[in-house]
Design a protein that fits this description.
The complex is a heterodimer. Chain A is an all-beta fold. Chain A is 0% helix and 49% strand. Chain B contains no helices and 12 strands. Classes of the chains: A mainly beta, B mainly beta.
Chain lengths: 116, 114
């Protein structure tokens, strides 16, 4: 049982390059999230999805786009990377509002992105 | 605005010392509260959670937390820390009507010395 899997785990980009982070979960979760983690700032929500085909903005969405074409996958894209996007990115998922004990998020292992 | 704050950014303790990490949440309706731990180089793992009922919640690895509604607090405690507890600890809140989004505190780095 893999849980939440993120690829790639490490990536170095030059300013202006584009890339996509893939998050895959095998728990049939409805809700998925992308967070970024920066020193002294905790985790901040970038975008999230409450179901296949839906996406919504979080706290820090600028410079990112997302897509949820399949229930199990949630993609995070950077169209034109900037040094300010150097961070560790975490994907997370949870069952949804109708399931018991909702709100417990399951996290992937993180993707460390450096933008030069 | 809904927010979660953690008072301590970096805590250094000797093994066997007692631990208490502070967490406060803002008023915003019903809130579920969580503590997550992140060991070096790893992803976040759930330590414990509070949804309702007994305000004293016990989690894994001997951790516990107390929900005090009057103080908007959810402090994490452990009677005797071990070197293996060295990690970063995050408090988080989930407010109703927010699509199960978690609002995280800024984290507390705990360093346990031998």
């Amino acid at each position: 049982n893999a849980g939440v899997t993120q690829t790639p785990k490490f990536r170095v980009l030059k300013t202006g390059q584009s890339m996509t982070l893939l998050c895959a979960q095998d728990m049939n979760h409805e809700y998925m999230y992308w967070y970024r983690q920066d020193p002294g700032m905790g985790l901040r929500l970038i975008h999230y999805s409450v179901g296949e085909g839906t996406t919504a903005k979080g706290e820090v969405p600028d410079g990112y786009n997302v897509s949820r074409l399949k229930k199990q996958n949630f993609l995070l894209g950077l169209e034109s990377a900037a040094p300010s996007q150097t961070s560790v990115y975490f994907c997370a998922s949870t069952r949804g509002p109708l399931a018991p004990n909702t709100g417990e998020l399951f996290f992937g292992e993180g993707s460390r992105l450096t933008v030069l | 605005a809904q927010s979660v704050s953690q008072h301590n950014h970096h805590v250094i303790l000797s093994e066997a010392a007692s631990l208490e990490l502070g967490c406060n949440y803002s008023y915003g309706g019903t809130v579920n509260l969580f503590w997550y731990v992140q060991y070096p180089g790893q992803h976040l793992q759930l330590l414990l959670k509070y949804f309702s009922g007994d305000p004293l919640v016990k989690g894994i690895k001997g951790f516990e937390a107390e929900f005090i509604k009057s103080k908007f607090s959810f402090n994490l405690r452990k009677p005797s820390v071990q070197w293996s507890d060295t990690a970063e600890y995050f408090c988080a809140g989930r407010y109703t009507g927010t699509a199960s989004k978690l609002t995280f505190g800024t984290g507390t780095r705990l360093q346990v010395t031998l």
